[in-house]
Design a protein that fits this description.
By secondary structure, this protein is of the alpha/beta class. It has helices at residues 4-11, 71-96, 110-119, 133-138, 143-151, 184-198, 216-228, 247-250, 260-263, 275-292, 320-328, 332-343, 348-371, 390-405, 423-428; strands at 125-127, 174-175, 204-209, 232-238, 241-242, 245-246, 266-271, 296-301. α2 (71-96) crosses α3 (110-119), α5 packs across α13 (348-371) and α6 (184-198) packs parallel to α7.
């Protein structure tokens, strides 16, 4: 206490040589002290670059970045993208004709679906939003089940209890889609944490749009994944519009990838219309996520050519010229077709033949789906409880009695029969006053 050094510290006369410049010791950040008042500007960087492999004419820009995919795989990428496009057109028209209640197309975003799906392992777990049908299609989900889900018929694995385009398939590790925006993000992180704990050598990929990235669930999910070091890929499809809201009105920062470093996420921005760039970025992100137990944020820049859904009219908030540019000048399908033609792996005759045969496949599945009955109304009460509780048995009985009493007012011939409880049970469990 009485030493010369202690006295020097008290009076502030110690030299820099004895005590080097102090550094912040706060536990919440890694930084240096400064003595100049200066705010950090939001445009401190010129912009996060967009990684791409080929240009709009299908020309590989740097041979060192060519993924060198075999012909069979590239043809699978192309056929999946074009088959998805064909299915979209037929189901969109089906909704417009009143045959199904709702639909969402994937026009212009096919490269993000298929490029990322090809880069994953088959047992990686997928949490989609509602515009990732191509991921499921790439994994071999049959056209018949896509149609069954959209028509809500007796073959629908969801038994007609979901809106159209809300697909799911446990065998293909694709978690059933739900409508509320961004709820899948923290759920996906929880699944990734469980996989980490199990040391399962798997990854989780969670898809969402740039609009969903404004939801609170996205921020919670990012932070959750970073702090718990989860093997997850956050795949953001930045397609320019959150329904009718353009990106200029959604945020002031540099897209979604710019948020990654703030949460401690490894981040990259990629050309979503370049299927090879999406493949390479996703493959490397998946490798790092599994090997290092770290989350990765991928922002795929693309464009939503179609309406947000059949409930939307995009001509009210964007020009026809804008849409035409992306449809005719920078489309992921045409870019990959150019590549195939350059390689001599595809020609106009093959194109015509595939377009004809793929349309025939979709129409056959479409026609078969229309002919199937709707699921039995009894299935409204199944698959939640192992043993049906009393209050649901009463509701079930009341429904059955109502349908039998007023059968002439309901098109019961359109529904699958069988599976209902006997009439005696229905009478016993009817709603009591």
């Amino acid at each position: 206490r009485n030493s010369p050094i202690a006295t020097a510290i008290v009076w502030g006369v110690c030299s820099d040589a004895e005590f080097p410049q102090e550094k912040p010791q706060f536990p919440g950040a890694s930084a240096e002290f400064v003595e100049r008042l200066e705010f950090i500007q939001p445009n401190v960087l010129s912009g996060i670059p967009v990684y791409r492999v080929m240009d709009r004419q299908g020309q590989i820009l740097q041979q060192s970045e060519d993924p060198q995919l075999p012909k069979e795989l590239v043809l699978k990428l192309y056929k999946t993208m074009t088959l998805l496009n064909t299915m979209d057109r037929i189901l969109y028209e089906s909704q417009r004709q009143g045959r199904i209640s709702f639909y969402m197309t994937n026009y212009g975003e096919e490269g993000t679906h298929v490029g990322s799906a090809a880069a994953l392992d088959d047992n990686d777990l997928v949490f989609g939003q509602y515009r990732e049908a191509g991921v499921l299609m790439y994994r071999g989900y049959p056209l018949e089940l896509f149609m069954a889900q959209c028509y809500g018929n007796s073959r629908d694995p969801g038994k007609g209890r979901q809106m159209p385009v809300h697909y799911g398939c446990s065998q293909r590790h694709f978690v059933t889609i739900s409508s509320p925006l961004a709820t899948q993000i923290p759920q996906a992180v929880g699944a990734a944490y469980a996989i980490k704990r199990a040391d399962a050598n798997r990854a989780v990929i969670c898809y969402f749009g740039e609009g969903a990235a404004s939801e609170g669930d996205a921020h919670a999910g990012f932070n959750f994944a970073a702090t718990l070091e989860c093997p997850i890929l956050f795949f953001c499809r930045n397609n320019g519009y959150a329904i009718s809201t353009p990106t200029a009105e959604q945020y002031r920062g540099d897209g979604i990838a710019a948020r990654g470093p703030g949460y401690g996420l490894l981040s990259i921005r990629v050309d979503g219309n370049d299927v090879f760039a999406v493949y390479k970025a996703t493959r490397e992100a998946r490798r790092r996520a599994v090997a290092e137990n770290r989350p990765v944020l991928i922002e795929a820049m693309t464009y939503r050519i179609g309406h947000h859904s059949t409930s939307d009219d995009s001509s009210a908030y964007r020009s026809v010229d804008e849409v035409d540019y992306w449809d005719k000048r920078d489309h992921p399908i045409s870019r990959l077709r150019h590549f195939l033609l350059r390689k001599g792996w595809w020609d106009e005759e093959q194109e015509k033949g595939w377009r004809k045969s793929s349309r025939k496949m979709v129409l056959e599945s479409f026609t078969a789906a229309e002919r199937l009955p709707k699921p039995s109304p009894h299935l409204l009460f199944t698959d939640v409880y192992r043993e049906l509780p009393l209050h649901l048995r009463r509701q079930q009985g009341a429904l059955l009695q109502h349908l039998r009493r007023y059968r002439q007012h309901y098109p019961m011939e359109l529904f699958e029969s069988g599976g209902e409880p006997p009439m005696e049970e229905a009478e016993e469990t009817q709603v009591q006053p």
